[in-house]
Amino acid sequence: MSTPHITPNANVTLQASSVSKSFVSGRVQSTVLQNLTLDVRGSELTLISGPSGCGKSTLLAILSGLQPADGGSVRALGQELSGLSINDLEYFRLQHTGFVFQGFNLFPALTALEQVELPLSYMGLPKGMARKRAVESLEEVGLGSRMRLRPTELSGGEKQRVAIARALAKQPELLFADEPTSALDSDNGQIIIDILHRIARNHGTTVLCVSHDPRLVGHADRVLAMEDGRILSDHVPPAPSKAPEAKEPSA
Amino acid sequence: MVALARKTLVYEWRRFLPAILAVGFASLLQLLQAALVLGIFGSASVYITGSSADLWAGYPGTQSVNLGRPINEDIAMRLRMDPDVTKVEPFRWVDADWRGPRDTGGVSVFVSGIDSRPDGMMFSHALPPALRARLNEPGAVIVDKADLDSLGVNIGDTAAINGQRVRVVGVSSGLRALGGVNIVSSLETARVLDIDPVDAGMMTYFVAKLRDPSKARMVARRLNGSAAFGPYNVWTAKEFARQSQIYWMLDTGAGAGVLFLAGIVFLVGAIITSQTLIAAVIGSIREYATLNALGVGRGALRKVIMEQAFWVGALGMICSVVVGIVLLIVARNRSVPMELHPFTAAICLALSMALAIVSGLAAMRILRRADPASLLR
């Protein structure tokens, strides 16, 4: 059922061509990505799944401009990322990207609203505008009534929703999520993946999610299975009528 | 702008408390040390600072007021001849040995023979006219009340200086000197107590008052120009006081000691403060990395840390100033020689802020570990 298709599409927002990456630890050089080529489209939730150590996080880091590739090129929103300076990459991320991590990484001292406002203030938005966007984003993830609370007063699922709101409020064209549900129970994981899916649909955002959580497969618009630094399959999963019993190549 | 630095400082105050206390203690130690040193070594020049003279004429090359040598009487004439000088007064310094009524052994004392007239310049700040008048009695001496114990006397007691009988007719404060006990007498009494035949009839200093004290430097320069009246040197009171203090500081090695201690205090304070700030940065490293992933630049993150360092410094300084003022008041009430000028205090506080800033810079380096790629697993 995995039908690799590389259809030329005007909606492509992220492109990796012949990307490779290897790490050196001691005298051992291990290749993580080999000559990898990939297109990711907007308005879709693309899921990269695979066993740990398969290179999916490295791929995410390279596609999002967090890490440079050793070879090949990465184009995001029509802009070539390889060769950009650290400052330029930071500016690109500030303007265009959002991130959601497995750990929620919220500042203990700030309320949910302040967590979301913080990056906006660095984007140079006026105070009123930042406040408005932060409130809207928190309402969108269903935390309208809990935005005055600090992380210690929120549950894990709520914290992750704050983290999503923090990324969403920037109104990014690209949203990257790394194992966003791994630290959550199934109900909360379900809520998170639904929110991510909705963001892709409603905002036209390119959502690229890395996870080995099989529960997510049914909710993605497209699933890329990775192993040993290569993409093994690229398919559209069946509609999420019920919890899929996916035969994932995951560990 | 969300005030991340301040909100974190308030919310996680326990985390930052060691740094605030370290800066506060370092600052307090510097302040008290400076006050103590200035207080103790300030008393080396009590002869000058306790008097109202504008100029001091003494033996050439005299390094400290307690090292004066006899000078020629004619020098008083030279001073009087200057049109800006309104009054000249002799000051006789006698190095002497004290035997008290109680068993205190020999005590090395300095006898200050001064003009006992009510308008005399010497020790005019420490001796009110009525007390001063008592010096007219032959053999009368006045001592600082803090010295009564070491001299083994009370008011009204008699004792012997260089084998001559003296009587303590009163006590005052602000007469305490460094190196030996300062004993004030009239010029006449001092002449009797001076048993060194070489000094016979010679004064140690002549002090002068000027029509316009602000011209002191200019007049001193003018007076130093001629050598026709024998060897002498003229200093402004301020110059001579400072010279005496510096002499004592260097002579006793206290200057080097103070700098050494200041260095140690700075180092220890900086280590504690930087370690605390580093721990605070490490504690939030994943959050910083997340902000960096979202595009908040390293420069902006560094600013947050420096702002925290600044607040730690400011809070530490406030603590030290409050405690310092209390301790200075206590010290003053117990006649501990402590003196703090605004300028010195400002230097001490600036050092403490520098300590906080240096610690902030050290903590800033840890930000390099805030690599957003490390958040991906």
TrEMBL record, chain A:
<dbReference type="InterPro" id="IPR027417">
    <property type="entry name" value="P-loop_NTPase"/>
</dbReference>
<dbReference type="InterPro" id="IPR003593">
    <property type="entry name" value="AAA+_ATPase"/>
</dbReference>
<dbReference type="GO" id="GO:0022857">
    <property type="term" value="F:transmembrane transporter activity"/>
</dbReference>
<protein>
    <submittedName>
        <fullName>ABC transporter ATP-binding protein</fullName>
    </submittedName>
</protein>
<feature type="domain" description="ABC transporter">
    <location>
        <begin position="14"/>
        <end position="249"/>
    </location>
</feature>
<dbReference type="GO" id="GO:0005886">
    <property type="term" value="C:plasma membrane"/>
</dbReference>
<keyword id="KW-0067">ATP-binding</keyword>
<dbReference type="GO" id="GO:0016887">
    <property type="term" value="F:ATP hydrolysis activity"/>
</dbReference>
<dbReference type="InterPro" id="IPR017871">
    <property type="entry name" value="ABC_transporter-like_CS"/>
</dbReference>
<dbReference type="Pfam" id="PF00005">
    <property type="entry name" value="ABC_tran"/>
</dbReference>
<dbReference type="InterPro" id="IPR003439">
    <property type="entry name" value="ABC_transporter-like_ATP-bd"/>
</dbReference>
<keyword id="KW-0547">Nucleotide-binding</keyword>
<keyword id="KW-0813">Transport</keyword>
<dbReference type="InterPro" id="IPR017911">
    <property type="entry name" value="MacB-like_ATP-bd"/>
</dbReference>
<feature type="region of interest" description="Disordered">
    <location>
        <begin position="232"/>
        <end position="251"/>
    </location>
</feature>
<dbReference type="GO" id="GO:0005524">
    <property type="term" value="F:ATP binding"/>
</dbReference>
<dbReference type="InterPro" id="IPR015854">
    <property type="entry name" value="ABC_transpr_LolD-like"/>
</dbReference>
TrEMBL record, chain B:
<feature type="transmembrane region" description="Helical">
    <location>
        <begin position="246"/>
        <end position="272"/>
    </location>
</feature>
<feature type="transmembrane region" description="Helical">
    <location>
        <begin position="16"/>
        <end position="41"/>
    </location>
</feature>
<feature type="transmembrane region" description="Helical">
    <location>
        <begin position="343"/>
        <end position="367"/>
    </location>
</feature>
<dbReference type="Pfam" id="PF02687">
    <property type="entry name" value="FtsX"/>
</dbReference>
<dbReference type="InterPro" id="IPR051125">
    <property type="entry name" value="ABC-4/HrtB_transporter"/>
</dbReference>
<keyword id="KW-1133">Transmembrane helix</keyword>
<feature type="transmembrane region" description="Helical">
    <location>
        <begin position="309"/>
        <end position="331"/>
    </location>
</feature>
<feature type="domain" description="MacB-like periplasmic core">
    <location>
        <begin position="35"/>
        <end position="223"/>
    </location>
</feature>
<keyword id="KW-1003">Cell membrane</keyword>
<dbReference type="InterPro" id="IPR003838">
    <property type="entry name" value="ABC3_permease_C"/>
</dbReference>
<dbReference type="GO" id="GO:0005886">
    <property type="term" value="C:plasma membrane"/>
</dbReference>
<dbReference type="InterPro" id="IPR005891">
    <property type="entry name" value="DevC"/>
</dbReference>
<keyword id="KW-0472">Membrane</keyword>
<protein>
    <submittedName>
        <fullName>FtsX-like permease family protein</fullName>
    </submittedName>
</protein>
<keyword id="KW-0812">Transmembrane</keyword>
<feature type="domain" description="ABC3 transporter permease C-terminal">
    <location>
        <begin position="260"/>
        <end position="372"/>
    </location>
</feature>
<dbReference type="InterPro" id="IPR025857">
    <property type="entry name" value="MacB_PCD"/>
</dbReference>
<keyword id="KW-0813">Transport</keyword>
<dbReference type="Pfam" id="PF12704">
    <property type="entry name" value="MacB_PCD"/>
</dbReference>
